[in-house]
Design a protein that fits this description.
Elements: E1 2-6, E2 14-18, H1 19-24, H2 28-34, E3 38-41, H3 57-61, E4 67-70, E5 72-74, E6 81-83, E7 90-93, H4 98-112, E8 118-121, E9 136-140, E10 151-154
Antiparallel strand pairs: 1-10, 2-8, 2-9, 3-4, 3-7, 5-6
């Protein structure tokens, strides 16, 4: 869930992508190729396309160990398959050379982030957006004056391990 506290005068939207629809739209050979593949997720991949804010010493000490999650996960409630990607966090794909894994993640991200799968939210004060992180990818859009403040409260609920 996101709730705005401070918004820039223009821009700063959040884009959401339906990863169920992105998976459903993949060609069958691609689905067969990626079903069963597992990716190693870390706080920030050495291949991340963007840098995250540095962690404090205390935060760095309590980082969880890398997690291994499927590239395609099945939603526990509706049974639908969805792509499970995060180019900032995916460090590798088990059993693949890094170059091949990075290329595959890039191809899947290019496919998944097509406008036809996207909802773009233009923030107003009083808005609250709730999404299911198990099947939606989201990102803040940095298209605003960085001298202005964009500050949103985020609430996350702990969930199950992706399968």
């Amino acid at each position: 869930m996101l709730f705005p506290v401070s918004l820039p005068s223009t821009g700063g939207d959040t884009q959401y992508v339906n990863m169920h629809d992105a998976y459903d739209d993949l060609p069958e050979p691609t689905k067969r190729r990626i079903d069963g593949l597992r990716a190693v997720h870390v706080y920030q991949s050495k291949y991340s396309p963007r840098e995250l804010r540095p962690l404090s010493e205390n935060s760095a000490k309590v980082l969880p160990p890398p997690g291994v999650h499927p590239l395609v996960r099945t939603h526990p409630e509706n049974g639908r398959k969805a792509l499970y990607l995060n180019p900032v966090r995916i460090e590798s794909i088990v059993g693949m050379e890094d170059d091949e894994a990075l290329d595959l993640v890039a191809q899947l991200m290019t496919h998944a982030t097509q406008k036809k799968f996207e909802y773009r939210h233009q923030w107003r004060y009083g808005d609250m957006v709730i999404w299911d992180n198990r099947s939606v990818l989201h990102k803040a859009n940095p298209d605003y004056d960085m001298n202005e403040r964009r500050y949103l409260y985020r609430l996350m609920l702990k969930g199950e391990i992706p399968v």
